[in-house]
Design brief:
Length: about 120
């Protein structure tokens, strides 16, 4: 099972205009939660959803104002480091999105250093 927990950088498109976002996701079994910070005026949102196999679905609710819920659905890459799909608000607004893991090389380096410290301590 792919675990999407961690930091992600992404982009969603509305009417051909891109908006960048940063996401912090936490996955427990198939349940997904977290937060997204858009690089736009709407700001931070809470995320809740699910991951089943390579399929991801979640709802995004902005913390400010009374904005409608945005529904995302997509597919994860086989290695779990990339996801893409579509988003929609009711049937009025929709577009595509994609995201990739952030700091993969830093996390791999940290794991290697911790493994080395553990083996030296034995």
């Amino acid at each position: 099972m792919i675990d999407v927990s961690g930091a992600w950088l992404g982009t969603y498109w509305q009417e051909s205009l891109p908006t960048r976002f940063e996401a912090t996701l936490v996955q427990g079994k198939n349940t997904l939660s977290g937060s997204i910070l858009d690089d736009g005026y709407l700001g931070e949102a809470q995320v809740s959803g699910e991951v089943i196999g390579r399929t991801i679905r979640f709802s995004k609710r902005y913390l400010t104002g009374s904005h409608p819920v945005i529904r995302y659905s997509g597919t994860l890459s086989e290695d779990g480091n990339f996801m893409q799909g579509t988003w929609s608000v009711d049937r009025s607004f929709f577009g595509t999105w994609e995201a990739h893991r952030n700091n993969d090389e830093l996390m791999a380096d940290l794991r290697n250093r911790l493994a080395q410290k553990i083996s030296l301590a034995k």
